[in-house]
Amino acid sequence: MSNSQLLSLLPVPTGSLQIPELPITSVNASGQSILLSLVIPTYKERDNIENVVSILSQLLDEAIPENYELIVVDDDSPDRTWEVAQSLMSEYPQLRVMRRQDERGLSSAVIRGWQAAKGRVLGVIDGDLQHPPEVLTQLVASIEQGADLAVASRHVEGGGVSSWSAVRRFLSRGAQLLGLMILPGVLGRVTDPMSGYFMVRRQAIAGETLNPVGYKILLEVIGRGSVDEIAEVGYVFRERKEGESKVTWKQYVDYIHHLFRLRVSTGRLGRFSQKAGFPIGRFLRFGLVGLSGVFIDMTLLYLLSDPTTLAWPLTRSKIIASEIAIFNNFLWNDAWTFADVTTKQQGWRQRLKRFLKFNIVCLAGLVLNVLVLNLVFNFLIPNRYVANLIAIAVATIWNFWVNLKLSWRVTDVK
Ligand SMILES: Nc1nc2c(ncn2[C@@H]2O[C@H](COP(=O)(O)OP(=O)(O)OP(=O)(O)O)[C@@H](O)[C@H]2O)c(=O)[nH]1
Ligand SMILES: [Mg+2]
After folding, report:
1. 6: which DSSP letter?
2. 149 CA → ligand 2 middle, Å
3. CA 128 to ligand 1: nearest atom
4. How confident is the model over 108-149, as pLDDT tens digits?
5. Is 78 exposed, middle or buried, given 0-12, 13-18 or 19+ CB atoms closer than 10 A?
6. What is the pLDDT of residues 358-380, one digit of tens each?
7. Ligand 1 pocket member 41 (CB < 6 A)
8. Ligand 1 contacts CB of residue 238 (under 6 A)
C-alpha cells in the first residue's frame, strides 16, 4: 500500500498519567459509547503484530461486533512495528495505532493508550500472543456481569505457565510473596497480581493518576482505583514464538521500588497528603536531602576555616561550603526527590536550567533565613536557637515549595 493511503496515527497524550472520564465525543447521538478499548503495548513485535490484530479482531467481531477498539501503542520500535500496525488499519476498522517517540515503558504505554480510549471498559493484552486471546470473551463477560475488574490469572483453575524455567517460576512467586508482605491490601485481592492481562471498568479508575515504576500496572489499578468486585479467569501463559523478551533484572528492581511507593501513597500518610494537597512524601525526601547538605556544609566549613586545618577566612569558606552543599542537594533532589519529574525532562540543558533555578531559590532561602531569624529574635522570642529553628523551618518550606513550583515543574506540552 502506498503511503498516501495510510490512515493517520493517534496523537500521543502528554502531561500527567491521569485516566479521563469517558469523553463526550465518544458518545454517539443515541447516548451510546463503545464497550471495550483494548490496548496492545508493543516494542519490537513486528513479526507478531499482524497475527495479534487479526486474531483479536476475529474474536471480538464475533463477540461484540463494532463495540470495541484495538489500540496498539508502540514505542517507536526500531523494527517499525508501528508502521506495520498502521498499514493494517484500512483492513481492520476497529484498529487505532499510536507511535510514541518521547516516552518509553510498558506501563506508561498502556496508560497513554487508555487516555486516548473511547470505551467504557479499559483493557490490556500483550502483543506477543503469550496471552491466549480466547480468554478475552470470558473477561468481557465477567465485566458485563458486574465485576469492576476482570483479571486473567495463571494461578486459578485452568491457569498456569507453559514452559517457564524453575528460576523464573521461583522469582515470580518470590516477587508475589514479597508484595504480599509490603502491600497485603493490594496483592491479597487477586491470585495473580503480576498479570498483564486484564480489563477494568473506566469508572473505577477515572480521575486517578496512575504512576507505575515498572511493569506491573495491575497493582496501580487495584491500589489507586475504586475496585469493588474482582473476577478472575484462568489462563496459561504461552511460549513466545516470535520476537524476544524485554524482561531484565531492572524489572525486579522497579517492582520493589513500585511496591514501596504504592505502599506510601496509598497508606494513611499518603491519603492525608492527598487530602491536604501537600506532597508529604516528597517533602520528607527533600528534608532528608537538606540534612545531608547541612552535614556537608558543616564538614567543609570545618575543613576550610578551622584554625587547625586550612584556616581560610570565614566568609570565603562559608561561600564555598554552601555552594558545594547546594550542589549536593541538587543532585539528590534531581535523582530522588523529584525523580518522576526528572525522567520526563532529561538532557543536560534541562538539568543545568534546573540547577540554576535551584541555586537561586536556595540563595533567596538563605536571605529569608537571616531575615526571619532577626525578626523572630528581636520581636517575638528572644532566644537565638529557638528563633534559628523557626527560621530554618520557614526557609526549608520556602525552598521546597518554590523549587516544587519552579525548578521541578511538570510542563504539559500540548
Ligand atoms: N510500548 C511498549 N511496549 C512494551 C515495552 N516493553 C515491553 N512491551 C510489550 O509488552 C508486552 C509484554 O512484554 P514482554 O517482553 O513480552 O514481557 P513478558 O511477556 O512478561 O515476558 P516474556 O515471557 O519474556 O515474553 C509485549 O507486547 C511487549 O512488546 C515498552 O517499553 N513499550
Ligand atoms: Mg511476553
Report:
1. P
2. 22
3. 27
4. 999 999 999 999 999 999 999 999 999 999 999 999 999 999
5. exposed
6. 999 999 999 999 999 999 999 99
7. yes
8. no
Answer yes or no: is the C-beta of 127 below 6 A from any ligand 1 atom.
yes
User: Is the distance from the beta carbon of residue 363 to the nearest atom of ligand 1 less than 6 Å?
Assistant: no
Residues in a beta bridge with 69:
37
**Centre of ligand 2 from the C-alpha of residue 245, in Å:** 6
Helix (H) or strand (E) holding 200: strand 198-201
Give residues with Cβ within 8 angstroms of 270, minimum separation 6.
264, 280, 281
For 3-266, which CATH superfamily applies? Answer: Spore Coat Polysaccharide Biosynthesis Protein SpsA; Chain A (3.90.550.10)
* CA–CA separation, 326 and 75 (whole Å): 37
44: number of Cβ within 10 Å: 19
Residue 190 CB coordination number (10 Å): 23
Tell which atom from ligand 1 comes closest to the C-alpha of 110.
1
- For ligand 1, whether the C-beta of 244 sits within 6 Å is no
- pTM for the model: 0.76
User: 126: Cβ below 6 Å to ligand 1?
Assistant: yes
Largest CA distance in the chain: 86
Ligand nearest to the CA of 41: 1
Count CB atoms within 10 A of the CB of residue 266: 18
- Pairing of the two strands 149-153 and 230-234: parallel
Domain boundaries, the chain: 3-266, 277-406
